[in-house]
Design a protein that fits this description.
The complex is a heterodimer. Chain A is an alpha+beta fold. Chain A has ten helices and eleven strands. The radius of gyration of chain A is 25 Å and the shape is flat. Chain B is 47% helix and 19% strand. In chain B, strands 3-2-1-4-5-6 form a six-stranded mixed β-sheet, sandwiched between helices. Classes of the chains: A alpha+beta, B alpha/beta. Chain A: ATP binds at residue 55.
């Protein structure tokens, strides 16, 4: 009973290729590949008179599950939760039948690179936004599941966090469908994999951690809780968030709103000026490297600015001098 | 009340069988008996070799299951993914059969409109969540597996965490091969959860033989025995008592 569907070759589409759905007969022109995951490849495409994201499956079962999740949400939700769903169809090619679906194209920056260019307070602000959406999702009876930076995008004007991948979304009470170890409380031995709001809130806490440790780390023999707390305190860029992080991984928040208001409170009571988050004496090599990066991207560093000012006035002075000399020449001739 | 039980044998090995019956044939037999055989081939830094890989794939294919070659480090996620996927696939297989009965021979899920397909998938998901699962885990403990066993242990506890989060009931049993005197040794009786596996793999046998076929045969016998017991005695507590719970 080996499933012939899931064993099929992956479907690769080329730029400018046109694909037409078998059922709805809508046509899409592929522009470029946006990314790929376990269940399929996502392309930027043009169709329905706009830019869309088109996901074509290598595995018909899981893509059908994803479409189901989308259909659920298009019934109950507003547009803020993830990309809007447009339609599901099949692409028939010589190689076989490939199910695909079309959704809103969200243009934005990946979560962590966005934060790397900004002060520590931004981490808090984006997560406050995320928690609001998560609460909506939880109220609708769902859990996000595979919450991680790769599944988040930050849009421009206004800077808003949006989520992308609905593959891990699970009905509350069931077992989490998809997860990533670093963000999974089961992996750290700090809970089960039942889909409940606190599962997501654990992952939210680990988003902070990932901000401090971009390449993540693995568990050791050491007790997970102690290790996570120690690791968290070692990074200046996330240390201010420690109380919220802690309650998140302990599963102490009753819902996402609870965590959100706690975080807002914390943001109000903490100063995240560059002096605190950036100019603190670095403790590890990694922070120093990170600092350098931040310095490069933010030339507003006081020291640098001062030297810039000196340079500026020298330039102006010499310019005036040259003009004056020229003037004198003009007078004598 | 019960929606039925999925029966799986999960084989964890790092090499080729070299003794007794052909494991591929035995796996085919398991499939005939309504079980699924999934195989995970564990590689170290070297690789399994073509022959090893092909055996792993053939056993799973004959046993109606899924195979995966994986580095010991990534074992945890693979074990749970393979188990979950195989469950869905088994259910999906049954559903596909139904579809071809309704729509005609050769028709599959894809011949349904996306909307209807979605409704069907909902049912498959629901069943995967609520059906009971009997999972017999068969671990190769021949000499070359020695340094991988801590990873295996961790992966199995992780699997237990995952499966316990389901709504349906789970029962695990853990056997190793080659056994001291027999083909397989029982490490853990049927139990609803693995809390601790520490010490489970202490009884290691260092020997050059890998009797995968005979071990699978014994595994089938054990699952069948449990099936019969369940069939004649619907009271589950009986099983739990037996497992020492």
């Amino acid at each position: 009973m080996r499933d012939s569907i899931s064993k099929k070759q992956e479907c690769k589409l080329l730029p400018n290729q046109r694909i037409v759905g078998r059922w709805q007969r809508n046509s899409y022109r592929i522009i470029r590949e946006l990314g790929y995951g376990a269940t399929g490849t996502v392309y930027l495409a043009e169709g329905r008179g706009e830019l869309v994201a088109l996901k074509i499956a290598s595995d018909s079962m899981s893509i059908t599950s994803e479409v189901n999740v989308f259909r659920q949400f298009s019934k109950v939700q507003g547009p803020s939760l993830g990309p809007s769903f447009y339609e599901a169809d099949d692409y028939v090619s010589a190689g076989g039948v490939y199910p695909f679906y079309v959704m809103e194209y969200i243009n934005g920056q990946p979560f962590l690179p966005f934060l790397r260019q900004r002060g520590a307070e931004w981490t808090g602000i984006l997560i406050v936004q995320l928690l609001k959406d998560l609460h909506q999702l939880h109220k609708a009876g769902w859990v996000f599941g595979d919450l991680k930076p790769e599944n988040l995008l930050v849009t421009e004007n206004p800077n808003c966090v949006r989520w992308l991948d609905v593959g891990g979304m699970t009905i509350q009470g069931r077992a989490i469908k998809e997860y990533t170890e670093f963000f999974d409380r089961g992996y750290w031995g700090l809970g089960n994999r039942k889909a409940e709001p606190s599962y997501d809130l654990f992952s939210v806490s680990m988003l902070f951690m990932n901000r401090g440790y971009p390449s993540r780390f693995e568990k050791t023999q050491e007790k997970s809780f102690t290790r996570l707390m120690t690791k968290f305190r070692q990074k200046d860029v996330i240390r201010p968030f420690e109380p919220v992080f802690r309650r998140g991984i302990e599963g102490k928040y009753k819902d996402a709103l609870d965590m959100r208001s706690d975080l807002i409170q914390l943001l109000h009571g903490t100063t995240f000026t560059p002096k605190v988050s950036i100019s603190v004496k670095p403790k590890t090599n990694i922070t120093r490297r990170e600092q350098k990066k931040i310095k490069q991207q933010q030339p507003s560093n006081p020291k640098k600015r001062r030297s810039l000012g000196v340079l500026e006035s020298m330039l102006v002075a010499s310019f005036i001098l040259v003009v004056y000399i020229l003037y004198l020449f003009g007078q004598t001739m | 009340m019960s929606k039925g039980t999925l029966r799986q044998i999960l084989l964890l090995t790092d090499g080729c069988s070299n003794s007794g019956e052909d494991p591929v044939a035995i796996a085919a037999l398991a499939k005939e008996e309504g079980m699924t055989v999934n195989v995970i081939g564990i590689v170290d830094n070297g690789d399994l070799g073509e022959q090893g890989i092909s055996e792993v794939e053939s056993i799973a294919s004959a046993g109606g299951g899924i195979s995966q070659i994986v580095y010991a480090k990534q074992l945890s996620q693979t074990v749970q993914m393979v188990t979950r996927k195989a469950m869905t696939q088994t259910i999906q297989g049954v559903v596909n059969k139904e579809i071809s009965q309704i729509l005609g021979e050769g028709k599959e899920l894809e011949d349904l409109e996306p909307e209807k397909r979605g409704q069907l998938m909902e049912v498959v998901d629901e069943l995967g969540e609520t059906m009971d699962l009997d999972l017999l885990i068969l671990v190769d403990t021949s000499a070359s597996m020695k340094n991988k066993l801590p990873m295996v242990q961790e992966a199995l506890i992780d699997l237990s965490v995952s499966l316990r989060s389901r709504t349906g009931n789970n029962n695990f049993a853990l056997y190793s091969f080659p056994g001291k005197r027999k083909d397989v040794d029982k490490l853990i009786q049927w139990t609803p959860q693995f809390d601790s596996l520490s010490g489970a793999f202490k009884k290691m046998t260092i020997s050059g033989i890998t009797p995968t076929g005979p071990a699978l045969q014994e595994a089938i016998r054990l699952v069948r025995k449990r099936m019969k017991k369940r069939g004649s005695d619907s009271d589950e507590r009986f099983d739990l008592e037996e497992a020492g719970m």
